[in-house]
Design goal:
400 residues, alpha/beta, pyruvate-formate lyase- activating enzyme, Arc Repressor Mutant, subunit A, 2 domains, nine-stranded mixed sheet, three-stranded antiparallel sheet, 40% helix, globular, binds iron/sulfur cluster
């Protein structure tokens, strides 16, 4: 039996995700929806978000903000800092004015280093953005150029200083490995520089693939999950070792935090908490419905000008679909998946088949078990998707 990993619980309440779809340029590695050259649309977009929020709050009874206080807000993109701090202040005011908000609501904004100066940092912290996720990716200018980023390592350092000076006490740095031409030494140098900055949270992501897999599509928000591979396993292991030495816990395959600084919003996503997404390409999970709003800014704006919800790809999840999600999303977390939600959703014979598969995978060294559930062994993280598929096949009646 294994020691349970420390991890805070996902918040009870509603999570909001807002997708701000503006980009200065499209970066070659990026699979997130974004539009370059749409600077003239900032005001129209804010008005559209206001309408979408009103319509969603009234219509989505399973995610109704009146009955579920807002527990986390995550403003991502795209480039949320592009429309400027006044836009973000207005957006936050709009989201939090009309409905109950938990006193300890976690409010995150994703920022690009080149947009952060002292004025923006002060304005956002004063407005209530208590958590910043900074897209550093690398401190190595050559690597940044190779992936088409518009900032330098020095810009990232200056942005971190501005945020700290402004009073930001919950800072997450996003780093990327497996970059073109990136040596292990260069990756270690980026990790060391990041750790010197003392962030509370670090995202360590392999270079994102442009295409989404079936399993990626199970995910919500704009949080893509790129599987680890033979090429990225060594730098990943190095990151895991360094982070552990510095007191961070990888509470999810690519997210590490100091104790108590796990991202509640991400935990909500991994644990299938109610999620309402606003903006084009935003994902939502309300009750047994999951949907993604249309990835088309113009159509999104037109629909809301006409007081209509924008088109969306929607799927109704039956009990088996929900169980599959529990398995896949649970496996990405250090805590793993638990039996209780699966027992509520699967017939006895299916559960037995799954338990046999879990015992088999544990005997092969992929999983560790306790009475509550199962989780990946650290060395099996690079085959997370394969292990998930084995288990999903078992509950779906596929071959064992
Ligand atoms: S990385 Fe950011 S700025 Fe670049 S295309 Fe993706 S969302 Fe846009």
């Amino acid at each position: 039996m294994s020691r349970r990993q420390p991890e805070i619980d996902a918040p009870l309440g509603l999570s909001l995700y807002v997708h701000v779809p503006f980009c200065r340029q499209r970066c070659p590695f990026c699979a997130s929806y974004g539009v370059a050259g749409a600077e003239g649309q900032f005001d129209a977009f804010l008005r559209a978000l206001q309408r979408e929020w009103s319509l969603a709050a009234a219509e989505e009874t399973e995610c109704a903000p009146e009955s579920r206080a807002i527990a986390s807000i995550y403003v991502g993109g795209g480039t949320p800092s592009m429309p400027g701090h006044a836009f973000l202040q207005d957006l936050l005011g709009m989201l939090t004015n009309a409905y109950p908000v938990r006193e300890d609501c976690e409010i995150t904004v994703q920022l690009n280093p080149e947009d952060v100066d002292r004025e923006l940092a002060r304005a956002l912290v004063a407005a209530g953005f208590g958590r910043v996720s900074l897209g550093v990716q690398s401190f190595d200018d050559q690597a940044l150029r190779a992936i088409g980023r518009g900032h330098s390592g020095q810009d990232a350092t200056a942005a971190i200083e501005s945020l700290r000076e402004a009073g930001c006490e919950n800072l997450s740095l996003d780093l990327m490995f497996g970059l073109p031409g990136q040596s292990l030494g260069a990756w270690e140098e980026t990790l060391a520089r990041a750790l010197l900055c003392g962030p509370q949270h670090l995202g360590v992501h392999p270079l994102t693939r442009a295409e989404a897999t079936t399993l990626d599509r199970l995910l919500t928000g704009s949080f893509s999950a790129t599987p680890l591979s033979e090429e990225t396993w060594h730098p990943y292991q190095r990151a895991a070792a360094l982070l552990s030495e510095h007191g961070y816990t990888l509470y999810e395959i690519t997210n590490a935090a100091l104790p108590g600084y796990e991202c509640r919003h991400l935990l909500g996503v991994w644990s299938r908490a109610p999620l309402l997404g606003l903006g084009p390409a935003a994902h939502s999970l309300c009750g047994n419905r999951r949907w993604r709003t249309v990835c088309d800014l113009d159509l999104y704006l037109r629909s809301l000008r006409a007081q209509q919800r924008p088109p969306r790809d929607s799927v109704r999840l039956d009990a088996l679909d929900q169980a599959r999600e529990e398995i896949y999303l649970g496996l990405r977390r250090a805590r793993g998946f638990t039996w209780a939600p699966l027992e509520a959703r699967l017939p006895q014979a299916t559960l037995e088949r799954m338990r046999r598969k879990v015992r088999f995978l544990a005997a092969q060294g992929y999983l560790e078990l306790d009475e509550q559930g199962a989780r990946l062994q650290p060395q099996a993280r690079y085959v997370c998707d394969s292990v998930a598929l084995e288990l999903i096949n078992a509950v779906s009646g596929g071959a064992e």
